[in-house]
């Protein structure tokens, strides 16, 4: 099954992967990092204007280097990390529960269309499931084995998850809850308590050391990132509702998790299955009352769902990254209990399994034609370089859902004569339009086009749905 999971993510990965502005920005930064330009800040969040830490760029660097600056390299890295995450999910489920639960968790995670999509493209949120499950696992080991050195590994993984996406913040209450539990368990043993305190302090030091690039950035830029974080949580009209009692988003979040992770983002059976999973979440705490692994899993999911239900903006599928392993473990556990019960629950389990597999196979991203974003971008750049006849040129992009970093990456790698508008105006401007026939490059207000000045279309080309224009200055 792990081999199948890897194949599903590597199959024609160069044609299926996402390569838009964010991905272009990342590879430009990492390419420069490989040339000695160290980076101390990560990507900017889409909401809140906050910056992540730079860890993902350093994670990308070996893959980009080994692939000779080919963006497919970091995408393959993500695919491998995803399969490692699936393996750890399977292994942990076996340790925590049983082989059947582990098999179902493995099956569902391997086939999940959303997990496949985010497991084959290079993007900073995509490794979050790996760091999340490791955060929980090492915290569990510290408690169950009473080896407090595992807390240092918890700190490393937690800081890593936070640098992938700020929703890693929802792992902090889970970790703190179990550290308090660990503290209480060892309260009567002064020797153990002293050792625990030392390792807690070491863990805090390691955590803040890994997050220190953000602190250094803030010190240099008038605490811009800290102010953005404070603004995000204080602007409750549009961002978060910090009162769970006033939130009406809990069940919608449950439904979306069910749809996105278990049903291939389909909505038809989502209400039925969401109710079953919610019912299971009420019954299983009684069944597993004395099971420490179950309460680790339960606290992970409960705090995660409660936290997401406080968020007022649209919740995208990649926001659930810190919950991916937990949801598949829980779904696998529910299926296992149903299959090991009497005839009626067993039939229900079989129905659920058929729905899961049917949805995952029918709506698998592999049944759709590849987007070929990488190839199309490269082809458009090659055409422009050829048509520029070795002369300097300006470049602009008209797109509602993209920006020009992906094109710039190839322009720069090919040592083209591209001149940014703010650095100089040339005799020709190439404009790529991703918005179809509605595109109007002449007089367009986009900065890299407007700065070129009054112009007219001289030539027009087309690659797939991309319309490419060569503009020249109008006389007089």
Short description:
By secondary structure, the chain is mainly alpha-helical. The chain has helices at 2-10, 13-16, 21-34, 55-66, 72-96, 99-111, 113-117, 128-145, 150-164, 171-185, 190-210, 212-220, 224-234, 250-262, 270-287, 292-309, 324-339, 343-362, 373-387, 405-413, 447-450; strands at 394-398, 429-433, 455-463, 466-473. The chain is built from 21 helices and four strands.
How are the SSEs placed, and which strands pair?
Layout: H1 2-10, H2 13-16, H3 21-34, H4 55-66, H5 72-96, H6 99-111, H7 113-117, H8 128-145, H9 150-164, H10 171-185, H11 190-210, H12 212-220, H13 224-234, H14 250-262, H15 270-287, H16 292-309, H17 324-339, H18 343-362, H19 373-387, E1 394-398, H20 405-413, E2 429-433, H21 447-450, E3 455-463, E4 466-473
Parallel strand pairs: 1-2
Antiparallel strand pairs: 2-4, 3-4
Helix pairs in contact: 1-5, 1-6, 3-4, 3-20, 4-5, 5-6, 5-8, 5-17, 6-17, 8-9, 8-10, 9-11, 10-16, 14-15, 14-16, 16-17, 17-18, 19-20
Features:
476 residues, 4 strands, globular
Question: How would you characterize this protein structure?
Answer:
With 476 residues, this protein is mainly alpha-helical. The protein has 21 helices and 4 strands. It has helices at 2-10, 13-16, 21-34, 55-66, 72-96, 99-111, 113-117, 128-145, 150-164, 171-185, 190-210, 212-220, 224-234, 250-262, 270-287, 292-309, 324-339, 343-362, 373-387, 405-413, 447-450, and strands at 394-398, 429-433, 455-463, 466-473. α20 links the parallel β1 (394-398) and β2. It is globular. The termini are far apart. 40% of the residues are buried.
């Amino acid at each position: 099954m792990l081999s199948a999971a890897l194949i599903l993510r590597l199959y024609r990965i160069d044609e299926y992967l996402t390569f838009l502005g964010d991905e272009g920005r990342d590879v430009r930064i990492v390419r420069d990092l490989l040339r000695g330009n160290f980076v101390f800040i990560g990507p900017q969040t889409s909401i809140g204007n906050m910056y992540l830490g730079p860890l993902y760029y350093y994670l990308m660097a070996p893959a980009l280097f080994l692939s000779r600056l080919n963006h497919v390299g970091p995408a393959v890295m993500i695919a491998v990390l995803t399969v490692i995450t699936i393996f750890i999910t399977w292994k942990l489920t076996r340790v925590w529960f049983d082989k059947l639960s582990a098999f179902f968790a493995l099956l569902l995670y391997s086939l999940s269309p959303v997990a496949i999509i985010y497991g084959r493209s290079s993007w900073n949120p995509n490794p979050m499931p790996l760091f999340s499950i490791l955060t929980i696992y090492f915290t569990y080991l510290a408690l169950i084995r009473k080896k407090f050195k595992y807390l240092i590994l918890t700190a490393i993984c937690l800081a890593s998850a936070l640098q992938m996406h700020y929703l890693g913040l929802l792992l902090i209450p889970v970790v703190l809850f179990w550290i308090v539990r660990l503290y209480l368990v060892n309260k009567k043993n002064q020797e153990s308590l002293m050792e625990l305190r030392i390792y807690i302090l070491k863990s805090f030091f390691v955590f803040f050391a890994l997050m220190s690039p953000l602190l250094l950035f803030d010190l240099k830029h008038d605490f811009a990132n800290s102010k953005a974080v404070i603004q995000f949580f204080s602007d409750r009209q549009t961002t978060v509702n910090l009162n769970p009692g006033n939130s009406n988003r809990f069940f919608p979040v449950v439904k979306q998790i069910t749809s996105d992770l278990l049903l291939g983002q389909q909505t038809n059976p989502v209400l039925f299955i969401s109710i079953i999973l919610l019912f299971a979440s009420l019954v299983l705490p009684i069944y597993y009352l004395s099971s420490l692994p179950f309460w680790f899993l339960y606290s992970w999911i409960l705090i995660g769902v409660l936290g997401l239900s406080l968020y007022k903006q649209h919740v995208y599928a990649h926001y659930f990254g810190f919950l991916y392993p937990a949801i598949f473990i829980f779904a696998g556990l529910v299926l296992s209990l149903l299959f090991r019960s009497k005839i009626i629950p067993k039939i229900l389990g079989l129905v659920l399994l058929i729905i899961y597999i049917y949805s995952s196979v029918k709506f698998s991203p592999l049944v759709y034609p590849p987007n070929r974003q990488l190839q199309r971008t490269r082809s458009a750049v090659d055409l422009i370089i050829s048509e520029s006849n070795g002369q300097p040129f300006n470049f602009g992009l008209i797109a509602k859902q993209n920006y020009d970093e992906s094109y710039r990456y190839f322009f720069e790698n090919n040592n083209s004569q591209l001149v940014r508008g703010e650095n100089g105006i040339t005799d020709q401007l190439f404009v790529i339009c991703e918005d179809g026939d509605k595109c109007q490059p002449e007089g367009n207000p986009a900065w890299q086009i407007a700065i070129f000045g009054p112009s007219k279309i001289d030539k027009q080309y087309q690659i797939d749905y991309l319309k490419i224009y060569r503009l020249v200055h109008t006389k007089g």
